[in-house]
Design brief:
globular, 14% strand, 39% helix, Rossmann fold, 2 domains, alpha/beta, 12 helices, eight-stranded mixed β-sheet
Length: 284
């Protein structure tokens, strides 16, 4: 019987490893957003097409690796804010990506050992690593679901989710750098609304989204590179990102550059150096 640890124990960067992953249904011939992001963060769970895509985007935006780290830092601050200041004890993390410590459950558990976290992604490699590495403390509970963000009804009814999270109690919904993978014609706003509608009052949504607002030419090249590689990557304006929060109460400072949202060490000299909008909002 193959376990998630068997996946995690596979080597990560040679021909034999590619063959091993392909046996388990992983398409190593095309880039995947989670693995490109892993490459930018300095991880090892990525393949030649992922690195080629990451490098192509880096040619358009040389500081993209630093931006990815700033985006990840926003996630940590948002989770900490929700756990420590808002009392959120359960999280639904959509578009989890390759585990990169500290992960959501580690940050949340530091505030409360009773935290419950459900991670969601659609890459088999993420599934393997998440199940092997995202282990919570005995007092908490962590679950991983292989699911499609584009099918919110199926996601919300998944037994692993409903047995881990109590959807009658507030939930912290995390959508960090994932909505750009859904084209406008597939109605990302409607999909987010379906998820938000399923959550009770007192729940929060935290999300980030790449934008062309800060450097239209460079980000346009990024979108073109992604399209040429077979990936959907849709940067959106502040107004378009703000629509994801419609009807919910934004936490100050509202939708802002990720570097300017509750920074740990004072406001950065250039908050627009990372091309992402970010925000956190509460359901009334």
């Amino acid at each position: 019987m193959t376990t998630s640890q068997d996946f995690a124990d596979q080597p990560d960067n040679d021909a034999a490893e590619l063959s091993q992953w392909e046996k388990y249904g992983v398409d190593t011939s095309a880039p995947h957003s989670a693995r490109v992001y892993d490459y930018w963060l300095g991880g090892k769970t990525n393949f030649p097409p992922d690195r080629a895509m990451g490098q192509a985007i880096e040619q358009a935006v040389p500081s993209v690796k630093a931006m990815a780290k700033e985006n990840r830092a926003f996630q940590g601050r948002a989770v900490r804010h929700l756990a420590e200041q808002q009392g959120i004890r359960q999280f639904l993390d959509l578009g989890t990506g390759i585990p990169t410590s500290p992960n959501t459950h580690e940050i949340a558990e530091a505030a409360s050992p009773g935290t419950r976290v459900v991670y969601v992604d659609n890459d088999p490699i993420v599934l393997a690593h998440a199940r092997a590495l995202m282990v919570s403390t005995p007092a908490s509970r962590t679950t991983y679901i292989h699911a499609d963000l584009g099918k919110p009804a199926e996601l919300l009814s998944d037994p692993a989710l409903t047995s881990t999270l109590d959807l009658s109690q507030p939930v912290g919904l995390l959508m960090i750098a994932v909505l750009m993978l859904i084209a406008d014609e597939d109605d990302p706003w409607g999909k987010v609304a379906a998820l938000r509608d399923a959550l009770p009052s007192g729940s929060f949504l935290a999300l980030t989204h790449p934008t062309q607002d800060f450097d239209p030419e460079a980000v346009g090249k990024v979108a073109d590179a992604a399209r040429a590689g077979g990936m959907t990557l849709v940067p959106r304006t502040k107004e378009e990102v703000s629509r994801f929060f419609d009807g919910w109460e934004l936490v100050e400072p509202g939708v802002s550059p990720v570097m300017a949202w509750h920074p740990d060490n004072g406001q950065p000299a250039d908050p627009y150096a990372a091309y992402y909008w970010g925000g956190v909002a509460r359901k009334l």
